[in-house]
Design brief:
5 helices, 29% helix, Aminopeptidase, binds coenzyme A, seven-stranded mixed β-sheet
């Protein structure tokens, strides 16, 4: 099977179709697997404007996506909103259900880290989706646990919480 990593992937329509395929549309609509940054063509175009999509294709079909964008915002431990327009956020990590557990996410995450290092960045932020309950801040929804474990594996530290879902926000050393 021919696999390739494609950098600077800019076809937003193909990315959106792939996001639906990778998520399973029903889950996406019920927000079971919903990834904010891949949720609309507008979101995808926003990322293309300031950052980059990197995809893994297998026999011409996208099976994994990651992206990074300029600017992030989240809640500090005290609860106030931090806006960091010059920092980088790694987002939109999604692997097709049939291809999970094979190292593709790690490969994409490392590729994004390398591309950010090449731009001179020393760290990036990753927001893991929580359970939308302020009382349970820092708790991660079941489906996001692998993503959290992946982030931790890179020596990342929690620096705050997501604005809406109250999941942990990791500062990832590059
Ligand atoms: C998160 C996701 C991208 C991981 O993709 P993947 O290709 O299966 O991950 P990999 O095989 O590269 O594994 C990388 C690391 O993720 C973690 N991981 C992967 N699967 C895991 C699982 N079932 N349970 C716990 N940790 C897991 C491990 O830390 C693993 O590192 P290790 O192999 O050294 O232990 C995939 O599960 C996914 O698409 N989930 C739905 C979307 C999502 O949650 N995105 C993030 C939103 S915050």
């Amino acid at each position: 099977m021919a696999e390739e990593i494609v950098y600077n992937f800019r076809n937003s329509a193909e990315l959106y179709e792939a996001a639906i395929d990778l998520h399973d549309k029903k889950n996406m609509q019920q927000k079971e697997t919903w990834i904010y940054s891949l949720n609309s063509l507008e979101q995808i175009d926003n990322i293309i404007r300031t950052g980059e999509f990197i995809v893994i294709k297998r026999d011409g079909r996208i099976i994994g996506i990651i992206s990074y964008k300029k600017g992030t915002s989240f809640r500090s431990f005290q609860g106030d909103i931090q806006k960091l327009p010059d920092e980088w956020e790694i987002c939109g990590l999604l692997i097709h259900q049939h291809y999970r557990g094979k190292g593709y996410a790690k490969q994409l995450f490392k590729a994004a880290m390398r591309r950010l290092r090449e731009r001179g960045a020393t760290h990036a932020y990753a927001i893991i989706t929580g359970v939308f309950d302020e009382g349970k801040k820092g708790e991660v929804r079941e489906i996001s646990k692998p993503a959290e474990s992946l982030c931790r594996g890179f020596g990342s530290q929690v620096v705050g919480f997501g604005k809406h879902s109250w999941g942990p926000v990791y500062k990832v050393p590059l």
